[in-house]
Structure formats: C-alpha cells, structure tokens
Amino acid sequence: MERVVGYLFAGAAHGDAERRAGPEPGLPRELDRLPELDRLCELVRERLGQDPALRRAREEAAAGRAEPTERTRRRLADALEDAAERDPAFADALRRAVAVLGGDVSLTADHGSVAALSMRDVTVHRPRQPGPERG
C-alpha cells in the first residue's frame, strides 16, 4: 500500500485533472501518465470518502509538503488495507491501477484459469491425464 499512498499524495499535490494542462516539469517519469493517476485517486476517493487519513493527506499536500508525514502515511495505508480486506473488488481495482502506473502486482491463476491485466486470443487446454506415453 506504500506505493498507493505515494501516488495518492502525488495526485493531491498536483491537483485534479481539470486544473492540469499536462505533466509538470520535474515529475517522476511514472507520473507522466496523469489520467491513470487521476483514475487511481478517484477510485480511492469513492471508496474512502471523507476518511480522516485521506483528508489529512490532502491537507498536507495542499500545504506544500513534499511527502506525507509518517503518521499520515501509516494511517492512510491502514485505511486502504482495511478497505481492500473488506472489498475484494476494490483490492483488485487498486492492484490494476498500480500496475498501470508501474507498480508491483501479483496475479495468480489456479484450477485451470488464466490471470492477466490484458490478454488477446488465448486458448486454455486441459492438461493431459498422466499415463503411458502415446506415440
């Protein structure tokens, strides 16, 4: 969740999409993808609403801090983790959003399923049953 907190703080520090004409000079390369950053921020705003940790992070960003205080970072990470534990769809949406922005993502496929962020023309075959070789 640390990466999500960092993205949220950067999004708050640089304002909403309506107030931005484009990437600001000096922003880290991964933040050049501002529409994706906006989507992540909106996803979290919709889920956490007026959560005090999110509100405090916005206040700190508006005050010109380069990063949130350790306490705010911790509280926001806890709020995000709690929301993700309670809502698997939110957790999945967070993982996808961070992946688009360049973060670490873990996807798992089991029981003959396929997992991917995007995929084209995939055929999944059932594994052959163990037995004597056929030739």
Polypeptide structure, described:
It is a single chain. By secondary structure, this protein is an all-alpha fold. It has one domain (2-101). The protein contains 5 helices and no strands. Helix 1 packs across helix 2 (34-48) and helix 2 runs antiparallel to helix 5. It is elongated. The protein starts with a helix and ends in a 34-residue tail after the last helix. Residues 16-21 and 115-119 have low confidence and may be disordered.
Please name the defining characteristics of this protein.
135 residues, mainly alpha
Strands, helices and their partners?
Blueprint: H1 2-13, H2 34-48, H3 52-62, H4 70-86, H5 88-101
Give the averaged pLDDT, no decimals: 75
Structural class by SSE content: mainly alpha
Shape: elongated
Radius of gyration: 19 Å
What are the secondary-structure elements, in order, as H or E?
HHHHH
The total count of helices amounts to 5
Q: Report on the biggest sheet.
A: none
First CA to last CA: what distance? 52 Å
As a percent range, the share of helical residues equals 40-55%
- Unreliable spans are 16-21, 115-119
**Percent strand:** under 5%
Counted beta strands: 0
Indicate how many domains the architecture comprises: 1
Region (Disordered): 55-79
Quick synopsis:
The chain is mainly α and 135 residues long.
